[in-house]
Amino acid sequence: MTKQLAWFHFKFQIPVEWEITAYSVEDRAGRLEFSTRKGFQALVGWQPCDEVPGVETMMLSFLRGNVSNFERAKQVSILNLKTHREGIFLTSHAGDGLPFQAVCHLESPKKLVHWVFDSYDERVAGETWTPILRSFEPNEGDIAQYAIFGLNFRLPRDYALEDMTVLPANVMIAFESAKTKARATFRRWGTPDLVLQGRPLEEFYPWFLRAQGCRVGSVQKSMIADMEAIKASYERRGEHQMDRFMGRPWKNGEASLWHDKNEMRIYCFEQIAPPGVQLLRFEEVFAGLRGN
Amino acid sequence: MKKRKTLELGEQLASIPMRNEKAGAVPGDEPGTLVVEIELRYSGLMSFVSKALKLVDRKRYILDGVGKQVYESIDGMKSFETLIDDFAAHHKLTFFEARALLMQYIKILMNKGIVVIGIKKS
């Protein structure tokens, strides 16, 4: 079974048991590391790259720089490397048991996407990395899709990642529009019994907003995709320039909070922006969910 | 001070949490709670002082909710990995989410002397 990973400039289908255990999250360059209970499985990284790099040279540098405890790696020369294509990726390995790479150059965003897998073994390629590499889809255009840490949403490309906090069963990802300075925040909580502590959503969420320094306006019960939900309006101190300096509030905050009892998760989508800025529609951001 | 060895993931998962045998657990006055009583042991000079001054020799902790659930799931036979899987299934969490949360709770119970961890020698 697989699940979707969508981030910045790429989309993949990865094994459902793979979890992100380390991350650095900058559009320019970064990486995500995946592990299971058996340990490290792979990482995917991205970095700026104007032209297609020499894969063999990259692979040799990688082996010598990162697997120096492998005696064989020191003896590997460019003649020992084997390369072949999986979809748009070019893989390069130096034999069984050694970590190996797969790289592809994305022309449009001028990015190099590379995967590093734990250990090469031809016998399991078809079950492990081959399907991952072949599942690649570009994440291009005016709308970017994000599928990570159990969240799945779309945002205009100009919304840049501002902040991300990943705690056990508690994820927060915040974006800000470069054009309008609007902020969009996504939250996902597990263990809803502990989060709510017996409170209904319409009592919990205003308390939560006030704890974030917001002033709560209206709170209405609602339904989202047949799930118990609430919609709230709020205001908070402006976050930019004179609004921040003068303490002028942004008053157009909108939030949707819904409780998926099957999954035992609570989701939240918050937006706030300078006065006069149009906020995104819920249906644009969450294509698969319908709110009432 | 001797640096404590960090366990590899495999070793950690194979370890077995065990209840302190000297700790007694009884249902608390409030429904859904458990009262765990630990014997306090004073060492050296404090041993004499505690007897002379009749200092408190027991400490009680009230466990409820997830803390109670974690304590009751520890039977001295299930490995940490099995406890994680059970915890994850109960709360519909991923493996690493359950591991992180369970570790926090077990750490608290260990600090209070209610639970200890047995590590298999490799």
Please describe what this structure looks like:
The complex is a heterodimer of chains A (292) and B (122). By secondary structure, chain A is of the alpha+beta class. Chain A has 2 domains: 2-138, Protein Transport Mog1p, Chain A (3-Layer(aba) Sandwich); 157-285, Protein Transport Mog1p, Chain A. In chain A, 17% of the residues lie in helices and 47% in strands. Chain A contains 7 helices and 19 strands. In chain A, the strands form 4 sheets. In chain A, strands 3-4-5-9-8-7-6 form a 7-stranded antiparallel sheet. Chain A has a 7-stranded antiparallel sheet with strand order 13-14-15-19-18-17-16, covered by helices on one side. Chain A has a 3-stranded antiparallel sheet with strand order 1-2-10. In chain A, strand 8 and strand 9 (111-117) form a beta hairpin. Chain A is elongated. Chain B has 5 helices and 5 strands. In chain B, 43% of the residues lie in helices and 21% in strands. The radius of gyration of chain B is 17 Å and the shape is globular. Chain B has helices at residues 9-14, 45-53, 65-73, 80-91, 95-111; strands at 16-19, 24-27, 33-39, 58-64, 115-118. In chain B, the strands form 2 sheets. Chain B has a 3-stranded antiparallel sheet with strand order 2-3-4. A two-stranded antiparallel sheet of chain B has the order 1-5. Chain B is an alpha+beta fold and 122 residues long. Classes of the chains: A alpha+beta (292), B alpha+beta (122). At the A-B interface, loops of A face helix 1 and helix 5 of B.
